[in-house]
Structure formats: structure tokens, C-alpha cells
Design a protein that fits this description.
By secondary structure, the protein is mainly α. It is 75% helix and 0% strand. Helix 1 crosses helix 2, helix 3 packs across helix 5 and helix 7 runs antiparallel to helix 8. The radius of gyration is 17 Å and the shape is elongated. The N and C termini lie far apart (46 Å). The model has no long low-confidence stretch (mean pLDDT 86).
Length: 166
């Protein structure tokens, strides 16, 4: 990840990046902060635990669709890169890992509130959040939003059937 490659991807000059951010690390920090903020938009101020099954499904579908907006695509790519680097590069920090864990916790708590035991809820929350991340990666590779959304919707139905035994 260089100033030049990011500037080209965003259609701005490298001078603009250096002037605005000062350093590569400051730029990466700002981009990752914005990426996490975008991820958190769907959960900010939302009482997910109050949702019934249909409300949860509608909310998660909307959150997933929101994450695929064209304006989020570069952020998604950088989040994957940063998430892969976080365990080995302490300068990156733990923003992506922390955000990912928050999504796991939200789903886990929602499932436990619905009566699932702790171990089962943990496995299922990983299944949902990990699959959403995998579909995000597939979207980055293919750019096929329609198929990505359709795959997520099929998966979410299977997730809910598995979680609640119907």
C-alpha cells in the first residue's frame, strides 16, 4: 500500500495525500478509522437485542447491503489488508479486529437472548460474521453486488433455520 497506489485508486494526486496526512501511517490510520466508522453505522444506537427474528434478519440484510455501497469498496479492501496485518504489525493497531469482535458479540448476545446456550451461540455468531466477511471478500474479487447480495440472503435464511431448528 503506497501513497501512489492509493492516490491513483481514489483519483487524487500523491501531493494531496502528503499535504493532508503528513505520513503514510497517518493516512492509513485515517482510512482505517473511517472504515470502522462506516462498519459501525449499522449498529450505532441500535438495540439489536430488542429485535425479533424477522427484525434481526431485516436489519442484518440492510447492514450487509450498506457495506457493499460503491463508496465503501476501497474501505473494504483496506480493511482486509489491515485485518491481515494486525496480528503481525503492531503499528497497524487492532481497529479491524476490535470492530469484527463487536459484530461477533452483537450476534452472540442476540442469540443468547433468544435462548441459545453460550457455546452454540458463539459458533453460530462466528458462522454469520465470518460468512459475511467471506462474501465481502468475494465481492471485492468479482464486483458482482447482485450475486453477493443474493448469496447473503440465502445464507441468512439457512443461518436462522439452523439457529432456531426450523
Amino acid at each position: 500500500m503506497t501513497f501512489r497506489s492509493l492516490a491513483n485508486a481514489l483519483g487524487v494526486s500523491t501531493y494531496s495525500f502528503v499535504y493532508h496526512f503528513g505520513s503514510r501511517q497517518e493516512m492509513i490510520d485515517a482510512i482505517l478509522e473511517e472504515g470502522v466508522r462506516l462498519q459501525q453505522e449499522s449498529i450505532a444506537g441500535v438495540d439489536v437485542n430488542s429485535f425479533d427474528r424477522d427484525q434481526f434478519a431485516a436489519w442484518y440484510k440492510e447492514a450487509f447491503r450498506h457495506s457493499l455501497r460503491e463508496t465503501n469498496r476501497t474501505g473494504l479492501r483496506l480493511q482486509f489488508e489491515a485485518g491481515a496485518l494486525e496480528p503481525i504489525d503492531p503499528d497497524i493497531g487492532k481497529r479491524i479486529t476490535t470492530s469484527f469482535s463487536e459484530w461477533l458479540d452483537i450476534v452472540d448476545e442476540w442469540l443468547e437472548t433468544r435462548g441459545l446456550d453460550t457455546d452454540r451461540a458463539s459458533i453460530l455468531s462466528h458462522w454469520l460474521v465470518d460468512t459475511a466477511a467471506g462474501l465481502h471478500f468475494g465481492f471485492l474479487l468479482t464486483g458482482d453486488e447482485d450475486t453477493t447480495v443474493a448469496a447473503f440472503d440465502v445464507f441468512l435464511g439457512a443461518f436462522l433455520r439452523e439457529a432456531f431448528g426450523d
